[in-house]
Design goal:
five-stranded antiparallel β-sheet, Beta-Lactamase, alpha+beta, elongated
Length: 327
């Protein structure tokens, strides 16, 4: 009887387990592909926004009205234009123009007029290179606000050498935060079971959901004081993992204690306007939660096997009773 029981159960168990593992592989593949598509779409959107910003800033610097910067913008016409642009576009935390001595002579925020930015990296490098520049995402200690500084020299009319000032646009950090937080990683958007993170070339978090940003306990290093988030994403502490995340787009599993995470990354290096940033967008999904839908297949297989075993035992006992000689 025991042999019959084992023989009958083995095919059921094998079939059930095969069905479970096949369904699991399909689900993980589908989840990974969906996350990869969402990640690529989000990075493409950010790339287009930066391309749009660069084109705008380049065209603004060439406007005839910008020649007023050489005179200190006495009528405030450049400031009025920048104020209108800053309000209309809504993606810049600051729009300012400095003269060649590093004094702000026009700004979207009138409170910044006269501020000395002679030692600001965006001013120093733009004047030195005499070419457009895009900096790191940092807090600007001179004009305030977290953002990516996009700066360009303003040349004297009919000259490619004589600089009369520098136009600087600070692409707002909140714009990046909104884009990253709008990515749908799980059905409810983002949660501890699935979320999106944008990291920089050093592995530091640039944008993430609030429940992750609130974990920041700060950094005492001077070089980290101007960052949005004072520490690296925990997995990026490993140099090898960080290099993979920054350079190799893929789906991979990363363990965090007992939790197994499916991580899909999209490096910025494959996007024309973001390659210089060294960023990477990560979509993180709790693998066990993603497989919850197929767990029922394994449970059903075990339940069927149990019911079959009970039935076989019951039928065997009943048959034995029927065959027993009667007195």
């Amino acid at each position: 009887m025991l042999v019959m029981l084992l023989v009958s159960l083995v095919p059921l168990l094998v079939f059930g387990l095969l069905s479970y593992y096949q369904a699991r592989d399909v689900v993980i593949s589908q989840v990974g592909e969906r996350l990869q598509a969402g990640s690529n779409l989000a990075m493409s959107q950010i790339d287009r926004t930066f391309a749009f910003s660069k084109e705008n800033i380049h065209s603004w610097a060439e406007l005839e009205i910008m020649q007023e910067v050489a005179k200190g913008d006495p009528e405030g016409t450049v400031s009025a234009m920048l104020e209108d642009y800053q309000r209309s576009y809504g993606i810049y935390s600051n729009l300012v123009v400095s003269d060649i001595d590093g004094s702000i002579v026009a700004a979207g925020d009138q409170d910044l007029l006269g501020v000395d930015v002679a030692n600001a990296p965006w001013f120093v490098e733009t004047m030195r290179q005499r070419a457009p520049r895009m900096g790191e995402l940092r807090l600007d200690p001179y004009i305030g606000g977290y953002g990516v500084s996009i700066s360009i020299p303003i040349f004297k009319e009919y000259s490619d050498e004589d600089v009369v000032g520098v136009l600087n646009a600070s692409f707002s950090w909140t714009e990046l935060l909104t884009t990253v937080n709008s990515i749908e990683v799980v059905s409810e958007g983002q949660s501890a079971k699935g979320y999106a993170i944008l990291i920089d070339r050093d592995g530091y978090i640039i944008a993430a959901p609030g429940f992750i940003l609130l974990e920041d306990d700060g950094s005492t290093a001077d070089s980290d004081m101007l960052r949005v988030f004072g520490k690296r994403w925990w997995a990026a502490e490993d140099p090898y993992v960080l290099q993979q995340l920054l350079n190799v787009p893929d789906q991979r599993y990363i363990r965090k204690g007992e939790q197994r995470l499916l991580v899909v990354n999209t490096p910025a290096q494959s996007f024309d306007n973001l390659a210089v940033t060294g960023w990477s967008l990560l979509l993180v999904r709790d693998a066990e939660d993603a497989l919850e839908a197929v767990a029922s297949i394994r449970e059903r297989a075990l339940l069927i096997a149990l019911i079959t075993a009970i039935s076989i035992v019951g039928l065997a006992r009943l048959g034995k009773r029927e065959l027993k000689p009667r007195d």
